[in-house]
Automatic annotation (TrEMBL):
Occurrences of domain NAD(P)-binding (ranges): 2-141
PANTHER family for this protein: DTDP-D-GLUCOSE 4,6-DEHYDRATASE-RELATED
Protein source organism: Gracilariopsis chorda
Record InterPro entries: NAD(P)-bd_dom (IPR016040), NAD(P)-bd_dom_sf (IPR036291)
The name this protein goes by in its record: NAD(P)-binding domain-containing protein
A family per Pfam: GDP_Man_Dehyd
Amino acid sequence: MPIIITWDNNVYGPRQYLEKLVAKSCVLLSQKSLAYIQGSGDHPRNYVFVIDMAEACDVIMHSGNVGSVYNVGSDEEKTNLQVVRDCVLASRLEDPSNPNAYITFVKDREVNEHHYCIDFSKLKILGWTQKVSWEQGIRNTVAWYLDECNLEGWPDYKRGLVAHPTHKAAPDEVLLWPRIIFLCTYQGVVRLAKKNSRYYTCNTQIHTTSA
């Protein structure tokens, strides 16, 4: 069976479900609410824009070796506090010069790794490079969430806006995180990645492995 596995590092972008830091912060700020920071906010993370993730899937599908594992990461390392501050600056608020005024600190998660990043040099050998900078990606993402019409199809989206959300997948919903196994055509995977940075799908061509 031809299998290629990917691990990706903090994908963000439009259409991401609101339990994630960037998406949640964008919507809270657009609603004139304070954005949450869990703990001190000094946890560093590396971020990959969803279009770069989609193109990484493209490269892996065409040039990757069957049976291999590829990490998809970036050099865009930001602390959680920096991420939310950048969301504030891109949200066209009344006083963006004081981003801390739009942030509230809450209890940290019981399990929250302080720092993790991945080595994606193996993917670079295949020819993939990051094309969307953090500055461009966060501007595009914030602009999408500022348009309230984009959330009309999510009647229950507010459940993701709490400080410590929980998510139970519906019976027909498969969560492709953190591993994706490609058993399908390149077109199917890339359409999925560009459409939904959370990688929720019922597509029978795509399956997951246990962590």
